[in-house]
Specification:
The structure holds 2 protein chains of 2 kinds.
Chain A lengths: L21 H10 L4 E7 L5 H11 L2 E13 L2 E10 L6 H15 L12 E2 H9 L16 E5 L4 H7 L3 H14 L5 E6 L11 H14 L3 E4 L10 H11 L21 H14 L4 H14 L4 H5 L9 H4 L5 H16 L4 E3 L2 E2 L3 H20 L2 H16 L4 E4 L6 H5 L29 E5 L3 H12 L4 E9 L2 H11 L4 H10 L8 H7 L4 H12 L4 H12 L3 E13 L4 H4 L2 E3 L5 E3 L3 H7 L2 E8 H17 L13 H8 L12 H10 L4 H10 L2 H5 L3 H8 L13 H4 L9 H12 L3 H10 L5 H14 L4 H14 L6 H20 L1 H11 L6 H10 L4 E2 L11 E5 L3 H4 L22 E5 L10 H10 L5 H8 L3 H9 L14 H13 L32 H4 L10 H12 L12 H7 L4 H4 L7 E12 L10 E6 L4 E6 L1 H7 L2 H4 L2 E10 L5 E10 L11 H4 L1 H19 L32 H4 L16
Parallel strand pairs in A: 1-2, 2-4, 5-6, 6-7, 11-16, 17-19, 22-24
Antiparallel strand pairs in A: 2-3, 3-5, 8-9, 10-11, 12-13, 13-16, 14-15, 18-19, 20-21, 20-23, 21-22, 23-24
Chain B lengths: L1 E11 L5 E6 L2 E5 L4 E6 L2 H4 L13 E11 L8 E7 L6 E7 L12
Antiparallel strand pairs in B: 1-2, 1-7, 2-3, 3-5, 4-5, 5-6, 6-7
The chains are: A alpha/beta, B mainly beta.
């Protein structure tokens, strides 16, 4: 008895349909002794590459196909069918499959509203017939390229299910005539459901009889959605979620739980049941199934081109002649431009040592590239970089690509590998023959433009975007599980908000450990006691959904480049931005042999470009950052203040603390700083000894004098991969290429081999045993967390540039930060930072605001002139703000900051400036009534108010009164004109300069809104507190309480007790050495940021508000960790929006004794810990859950994105508005 | 037709299909080939847990429709019984008795 081949199997990559991962399906098939297995995901080949890889691992032959909607014509559906590629024919079957899938998607326009894909029967027929008529080529098998399975969901199956036997037979005959011979098959499926239900055996029998009558071969399948029976409940939930309905209400729930990968014996039993009822024997049905499976057996290498990289053809890249020669010529030209000092002209380097080193290095690299045959690849990347630079876009390589001098010469990388001691072998060597990754960063705002240009340059037949799978994470999973259970939306939402980044696959475990979930755990318990189990089920279903793919989208940076046959090897579908994207994701690139280029849109690059643009627009000065020396003192002084908000890589709370300890003085310090700020070094206590040596508190220590040149730059501490390579090379003489291969094995199963080699080779070279022991200990520890210096150096360039711009062009820089939002913080923190720096932030004004954040010269500003003395900033007297006219640069907020203004309204408002009157605004900009009111509320129309006349409040009342008459109209209606008969002016026509009779006629009744009211309105409508800081309204209570401000924290004694308060701007849970979760929370109080750490006890004391509260009051002790580094170790926190929980103003005095007791206990525990005594915690440990990234980026709800950016972001969680208490 | 949850002792043939059963103290044998199907359950309303790994028996249960007659009275009328087979416990329970006679004579024994 041969094993049963499953021909209709969807994987988890069939979003909201499939349940099991390809690896699990293949494992289940292998365990059941099967030798063939298909993957037929819905609508695409999303799981195909993973399926093939999994099959290869398990020794199974893969079959590939798709479960696709088909139509006879646009308005005549033919149901869903399975299309399988025939295998073992040099890829022609697979090509036909790719083309059918791409054609089906060409009808959609991408995104969730872009329509559903479908293929026409004619398209399938044409693809199945292949490009060459069979009769004309006798070497080709006479079977068709594809097999089509007409199953229960096809029109044939649907007719027969409704007992329309004749119609079913007719449909089947139609298929037989429409498709090439050998293509159509009837797919017999029985899920053994109750008689009369969908997928019952009776239906299978009818299908089999119809096949026999029409003489179409019949095959048996099981329409598999899960590997094992336990997936059935998950499939039910997906059915409900797909229908956006509860399980009780969904109408097309699977009939039962039998859609699993049944073993051969069970499938044979189904075959017997069906055949018996149809009065035949099961043999022919099973034999036909087997025969079809064998004809579809895919040979990954010959059919798919598995593992063979294909790069664009030389002619397309523009290479004439030998690629090696072209690369050599271009490299030498590039070096002459990069190192003019070492060059005598006429293509020759001078005879100095540096020039010889440079030449040797270039020859060394060119030799490696030539021997590996990668010249074409480097020239391809160079062609892309040329293209991008030609568009005037900032571009720079990130990562290990910066190690290469050739990359530097080709302008792919901007880091000087010679000056920074970077090693080519870390990037590419003779011993490493896979295509290296060259990742390039570009301005995020022009990313799409670049993709279009790359596609145009290389041709759409060789270029496509890469896609990515978006999977369920905890919050989405709990929301959809709640939907399926029919739970109250608000209740589920409340639970979702408590889920702090953790893997929901262990939701139940987390319930017992996480303080923020303790309330939920109590509710589950009490529900259980009362016989309500919905929350229990919610937890189970959430765990089931976690990590399942939800939808596919364009990858943020991957572009696939290949030869002209790309579209034969990947199906493509429209992406949100209009260009096609591959159905394969980044994991599929290497196996499928695709060359992927990461062209990553980096917001900081856009922010830098915007800063330069604003400086030039306002002053005419053109800055060439490449010419800016990397040793500007003022820049490093600014960095050392730790006021680095907005700067690339060094603005996070942890980085600001590290900067405060490290006190960078030169470029290499930034490289070291960025390299140290990684989970490994932070966890393994590398930072402390490094700082001790750096500041001279302890002498640098080198295991052996030979290692001093290698480790001197980091005072004896191994920080970089490059140092590991050199250490290996020095002590064993193995060469740098071999050293990199060995480095990669450290930390893996083969580490012992490396150790054995290292020890014996070092011993041979005469190193002492103690030296070898010490060095190996370092290398061993390093294996888990090393950092490539080239990465750090590539990052340090934009870090330095952003810091230089913040130092020398602060207003333009902060405007750029608000415009492009490159960092981790909410925009309102950047407004607060600008205010702290003494840069006025100016409100939206219809006569001054444009589409963009701009700087403008202002003679004076009430906010600045009227500032309390305490707010004066050391940065205020900066060169940039000194100007002959004694004014200063301010930042004008853009029209796009106002939520609810449409793009068209913004365009018209911008185009119509300036306005002379309210009527003028109405006539030429034509805002909706609501938009006009919003502009008035924000003060954007204040400029039109007559001096000494009506106030902003009067204007708002006037507009509301005027509009209330038409309020019942549909939204979006243009504001009612005061004189409706008046003709509208033609766009662009200037209005007459007449006094605004409408506004002068207004009777002044009310004063302007109070400061607090204005702030409230600003937060509601722009999410930015411009008039004053959000915390200002809390000042009386906080002052009474004795709260310390951020700017005063540095002057407090270490270990002293403080209360701090502010708006949450960041929450992070980086991995810690202890494995316990530590929550780092940053709040902004208007004078700066306070960074507080919450250890286990403080997390328990604070409870669930720790992750949900927006305005916090925090009690803790001051920790001074460096000259400028200060943070607060929290004891507990309160939610400022829950007044009933807040402490009384005499709190600090009243609880002094309790505090002393706590402090004494804390110190005792610390002393014991130092002595190595295990101190049992009074409260349960909170383990750290994988956060999947470092550092974890969080945008708290308070961080409402600017209105214009909402649309560009992936569906933001509904953000609640922030209202300061009146 | 009535709904029961009464335990029944079943003897199976080699292919897993029921062959004889004992119900209310009497022995029955099969008069016709049995019918089998898997019937959906509203597990989200009936179950208290649906954790990962929970497989057979959660979403559906195996139902056998048996036409039986008394083993010792070959001419007694054939009765139709629906039995649920709980795959996790291996137990059989009677879920329905189809009375060919007049409706309304059902006896609920559960």
């Amino acid at each position: 008895m041969s094993a049963f081949p499953h021909l209709h199997v969807v994987s988890a990559f069939s979003a909201h349909h499939g349940v099991s991962w390809p690896a699990d399906l293949a494992a289940a098939a292998a365990a059941a002794g099967m030798d063939l297995l298909a993957c037929t995901d819905r609508d695409g080949l999303y799981g195909t590459a993973k399926h093939v890889a999994a099959c290869l691992r398990h020794g199974i032959t893969p079959i590939v196909g798709v479960d696709l909607a088909v139509r006879w014509a646009g308005d005549e559906p033919a149901g869903r069918v399975v299309v399988l590629a025939r295998g073992g024919r040099q890829g022609t079957g697979y090509r036909a499959l790719c083309r059918v899938v791409s054609a089906a998607h060409a009808r959609t326009s991408g995104g969730s509203a872009g329509g559903d894909p479908w293929a026409s029967v004619a398209e399938i027929a044409a693809a199945a017939a292949g490009p060459v008529p069979h009769a004309a080529d006798s070497s080709r098998p006479a079977t068709s390229e594809l097999a089509v399975l007409l199953g229960p969901d096809s029109d044939v199956g649907r007719h027969l299910a409704r007992r329309r036997t004749a119609a079913g037979a007719a449909a089947l005959r139609r298929w037989r005539f429409a498709l090439p011979a050998g293509t159509p098959h009837v797919e017999v499926v029985s899920h053994l459901s109750a008689p009369g239900q969908r997928l019952d055996t009776g239906h299978a029998v009818k299908m089999l009889r119809a096949a026999r009558a029409a003489r179409v071969p019949a095959v048996l399948a099981n329409a598999v959605r899960y590997a094992a029976p336990d997936g059935a409940a998950t499939a039910d939930v997906l059915d409900a979620v797909r229908a956006l309905s509860s399980l009780d209400a969904v109408h097309d729930l699977q009939p039962n739980g039998q859609g699993w990968l049944k073993p051969t014996e069970a499938m044979h039993r189904i075959a017997r049941e069906v055949a018996d009822a149809a009065d035949e024997r099961p043999g022919p049905l099973l034999a036909a199934t087997r025969a079809l499976a064998e004809s579809c057996a895919i040979d990954p290498e010959t059919d798919l081109g598995w593992g063979v990289p294909r790069v664009p053809e030389a002619a397309v890249v523009g290479i004439e002649g030998d690629p090696d020669a072209v690369l050599r010529r271009r490299t030498l030209e590039g070096l002459a431009a990069r190192y003019p000092d070492l060059h005598t002209g006429a293509g020759r380097f001078d005879t100095g040592r540096a020039a010889r080193d440079l030449e040797d290095r270039a020859e060394h690299e060119l030799g490696i590239i030539s021997r590996l045959g990668f010249a074409g690849y480097f020239l391809t990347v160079a062609a892309v970089v040329d293209l991008i630079e030609g568009m005037g876009v900032r571009v720079a390589a990130r990562g290990s690509g910066a190690s290469s001098l050739v990359n530097h010469a080709l302008r792919i990388s901007h880091v000087d590998p010679m000056a920074n001691g970077l090693i080519m072998e870390r990037f590419l060597s003779d011993d490493r023959s896979t295509l290296p990754d060259i990742d390039i960063d570009v301005e995020s705002a022009r990313r799409h433009e670049i993709y279009h240009a790359v596609v145009a340059r290389f041709g759409s037949e060789r270029t496509t975007l890469m896609s990515m799978q978006n999977a369920y994470r905890a919050r989405g999973a709990v929301r959809d599980a709640g939907l399926a259970l029919g739970m109250d939306e608000h209740e589920v939402d409340g639970i979702a908000k408590q889920l702090w980044r953790f893997s929901a696959s262990d939701f139940r475990g987390a319930l017992t450990r996480m303080p923020e979930l303790s309330d939920l755990a109590r509710r589950i318990d009490s529900g259980r006691r009362e016989g309500r189990h919905q929350l229990d089920l919610l937890v189970d279903l959430t765990e089931r959904l976690d990590r399942l793919p939800r939808h596919i989208s364009m990858h943020p940076c991957g572009v696939i480049l290949s030869d002209a046959r790309l579209l034969d090897r990947t199906p493509v579908q429209p992406s949100g931005m209009g260009l096609p994207m591959s159905q394969f994701d980044k994991h599929d690139m290497d196996p499928m042999g695709f060359l992927k280029l990461d062209i990553l849109g980096v917001r900081m690059q856009s922010a830098i470009a915007y800063t330069l643009h604003e400086v030039e627009r306002t002053t005419g000065e053109r800055i060439d950052l490449e010419q800016v020396p990397l040793d500007d003192r003022a820049t490093y002084e600014m960095i050392r203040t730790t006021h680095t908000l907005g700067c690339f890589q060094i603005e996070s709370p942890g980085q600001r603390e590290l900067i405060g300890k490290l006190e960078p003085r030169e470029f290499n310090d930034l490289v070291v700083d960025i390299s140290l700020f990684r989970p490994g070094p932070m966890q393994s206590d590398m930072v402390r000894p490094f700082l001790e040596h750096r500041h001279g508190w302890a002498p640098a220590h080198y295991p052996h004098p030979h290692l001093e040149p290698v480790l001197a730059e980091t005072h004896g501490v191994t920080v970089f991969h490059e140092q590991v390579l050199r250490t290996m090379d020095v002590m064993t003489g193995c060469g740098l290429a071999r050293a990199d291969e060995l480095r990669r094995l450290i930390g893996g199963p083969e580490e012992r081999r490396v150790e054995a080699f290292f020890r014996s080779a070092a011993l041979q070279k005469g190193y002492g045993l103690d030296v070898i022991d010490e060095v190996w200990a370092t290398l061993h520890a390093f294996g888990s967390f090393g950092f490539c210096k080239a990465h750090g150096a590539a990052f340090a360039v934009p870090t330095y540039h952003s810091a230089w711009l913040k130092t020398h062009h602060p207003a333009a820089f902060m405007a750029a930060i608000l415009e492009h939002d490159p960092g981790m913080y909410p925009a309102r923190l950047m407004v607060a930072e600008a205010r702290r720096m003494g840069i006025p932030v100016l409100p939206v004004d219809v006569n001054r605001s444009t589409r963009h954040v701009r700087i403008e010269r202002i003679p004076s500003h009430p906010e600045v002139d009227g500032r309390p003395a305490g707010h004066a900033s050391p940065d205020a007297g900066h060169p940039d703000t000194r100007h002959p006219d004694a004014g200063r640069w301010g930042i004008r907020l853009p029209l796009t900051a106002v939520s609810g203004l449409s793009d068209a309204e913004v365009d018209r408002l911008d185009a119509g400036r300036p306005y002379a009157s309210l009527a003028d605004v109405r006539d030429r900009a034509r805002p909706t009534a609501r938009s006009l009111e919003r502009l008035a509320q924000l003060g954007a129309l204040d400029c039109l108010l007559p001096p000494g006349g009506a106030s902003r409040t009067d204007l708002v009342h006037h507009l509301e009164l005027q509009h209330s008459a038409t309020r019942s109209d549909a939204p979006g209606r243009a504001a009612r004109r005061s004189r409706s008969s008046r003709l509208r002016q033609v766009d662009g026509q200037l209005s007459l300069d007449l006094p605004d009779t409408e506004l002068t006629a207004l009777t002044p009744l009310f004063p302007d809104p109070s400061r607090d009211a204005a702030v409230r309105t600003e937060l509601d409508l722009t999410a930015l507190d411009v008039t004053a800081h959000l915390m200002d309204s809390h000042a009386p209570y906080l002052d009474a309480l004795g709260v310390t401000r951020a700017k005063d924290l540095l002057s407090r004694r270490t270990q002293s007790r403080v209360l701090v308060a502010g708006v949450r701007v960041a929450t992070q849970t980086p991995p810690m050495r202890s494995g316990k979760r530590v929550v780092f929370l940053s709040v902004d109080d208007g004078t700066g940021c306070v960074d507080a750490s919450f250890f286990t006890e403080a997390q328990h004391a604070s409870g669930e508000m720790l992750f949900s509260a927006r305005l916090l009051l925090i009690e803790g002790t001051v920790r001074r960790t460096g000259a400028r580094a200060v943070s607060v170790q929290a004891v507990r926190a309160w939610d400022l929006h829950r007044p009933e929980t807040l402490p009384d103003p005499d709190y600090l005095d009243a609880t002094r004794d309790r505090w002393r007791a706590w402090l004494a206990a804390d110190r005792r525990a610390a002393t014991l810990r130092r002595r190595g005594v295990q101190v049992p915690d009074a409260v349960p440990d909170i383990p750290h859950h994988s956060t999947g990234g470092w550092p974890v980026k969080v945008r708290p709800d308070v961080a409402l994105p600017m209105a214009a950016r909402v649309a560009a972001r992936p569906a933001p969680a509904p953000a609640s508005r922030l209202v300061p208490p009146a | 037709m009535g709904t029961f949850t009464q335990s029944v002792a079943v003897e199976c043939a080699q292919d897993g299909a029921p062959a004889r059963l004992r119900w209310e103290g009497r022995e029955y044998v099969l008069a016709e080939r049995p019918l089998r199907w898997f019937e959906r359950r509203r597990w989200w309303a009936e179950e208290v847990r649906a954790e990962k790994g929970r497989g057979p028996g959660l979403v559906d249960h195996e139902i056998w429709r048996l036409q039986v007659s008394l083993a010792r009275a070959a001419h007694a009328p054939v009765r139709t019984l629906d039995l649920a087979h709980h795959l996790d416990s291996g137990r059989w329970r009677l879920v329905r008795v189809h009375e060919p006679a007049v409706a309304g004579t059902l006896r609920h024994t559960a």
